[in-house]
Amino acid sequence: MSALPSRAVCDCPVDAITEVADGTHLLRFRSPVISNQSLPGQFVNIKVSGGQHPLLRRPFSVCRVNAREGWFEVLWKVVGQGTAIMAQARPGDTFSVIGPLGRGYTVPESTRTALLVGGGLGVAPLPFLAENLAAAGTSVEVYVGARSKGDLSMLEAFGSLGLEPVIATEDGSVGACGFVTAPLTTRLKELQGAPDAHLFSCGPTGFLKAMTALSKQYEIPGQIAIETVMACGFGICVGCAVPAKRQVGTGRRYKLACIDGPVFDSDEVELDG
Ligand SMILES: Cc1cc2nc3c(=O)[nH]c(=O)nc-3n(C[C@H](O)[C@H](O)[C@H](O)COP(=O)(O)OP(=O)(O)OC[C@H]3O[C@@H](n4cnc5c(N)ncnc54)[C@H](O)[C@@H]3O)c2cc1C
Ligand code: FES
């Protein structure tokens, strides 16, 4: 499951849009091309308005795909102008979408147990990954953390795959009370050093830092999907540079989140913030 270099610019009609959690929307686009080419962890860059404002496209993970039926979905929370415009979309509206973009999750051949961990909206790329892993016969465990019950989404997508996510909420309104790293740590202690286990995570920077530390502590290799501010989405503007942990020669080496990522090995890049 690594990235394909091909990408398309498509005018994608909206098939359906649903508010699946408080301020969180799931939008299904019709696009045989993007649905056929996407891999888990990749993203699309969406022009949210036909006018000048906002000028830049907005990046979103590919959340779920059905290549046979020719659709893909994105999941987002309204945080600003672009995401608010998208929330007004109605079936039949059309958006210009570039995708699929970036390097997605790579599943090592040795993987027998896959731990998928989403912090908040970081759950977005995981249903697609879970579906592919389950279809390949990999044992999948899902861990989802959120502030509160109303912030949880996509649980039924995991349920339809026969998966029951381990949930933690910071206010204890559902699942364990606190951070999802607590139940995850219990499991990692059991798996410590297992050569066939792998962590796949996505979420805010602080959460990804915690995942990186857990991966190291319990000797379970991991990959993290990061978010940066992006403009072009395909390596031209250099707006998404992130410092790499390993330097090359004497100079500091940067990676571009849009083409080298957004998924990186957990020891590959420095996480700020
Ligand atoms: C590869 C990638 C995949 C993403 N996938 C998803 C997803 O599946 N679901 C989802 O809800 N969001 C996702 N994001 C974040 C999403 O792109 C931003 O929330 C969106 O661009 C905000 O647009 P806006 O116009 O509503 O907000 P703006 O008005 O532009 O900004 C509002 C707030 O959001 C912050 N913000 C803006 N752009 C980004 C960004 N690229 N990353 C982080 N914070 C940002 C700003 O700093 C500001 O605080 C992803 C980002 C990247 C880089
Ligand atoms: S967003 Fe332009 S180079 Fe990455």
Question: How would you characterize this protein structure?
Answer:
The chain has 273 residues and is α/β, with parallel strands linked by helices. It has 3 domains: 8-101, Elongation Factor Tu (Ef-tu), domain 3; 113-222, Nucleotide-binding domain of ferredoxin-NADP reductase (FNR) module (Rossmann fold, 3-Layer(aba) Sandwich), CATH 3.40.50; 226-273, Dihydroorotate dehydrogenase, electron transfer subunit (Dihydroorotate dehydrogenase B (pyrk subunit), domain 3). It contains 6 helices and 16 strands. The protein has helices at 32-37, 81-87, 126-135, 155-159, 181-191, 205-217; strands spanning 8-21, 24-30, 43-47, 58-61, 64-66, 71-77, 94-101, 113-119, 139-146, 166-169, 176-177, 197-202, 222-225, 241-243, 254-256, 263-265. The strands form 3 sheets. The protein has a 7-stranded antiparallel sheet. The protein has a 7-stranded mixed sheet with strand order 11-10-9-8-12-13-16. β1 and β2 form a beta hairpin. The longest helix is centred in the C-terminal third of the chain and has 13 residues, at 205-217. It starts with 7 loop residues before the first strand and ends in an 8-residue tail after the last strand. The mean pLDDT is 94. The structure holds flavin-adenine dinucleotide and FE2/S2 (inorganic) cluster. Flavin-adenine dinucleotide (FAD) binds next to β4, β6 and α2.
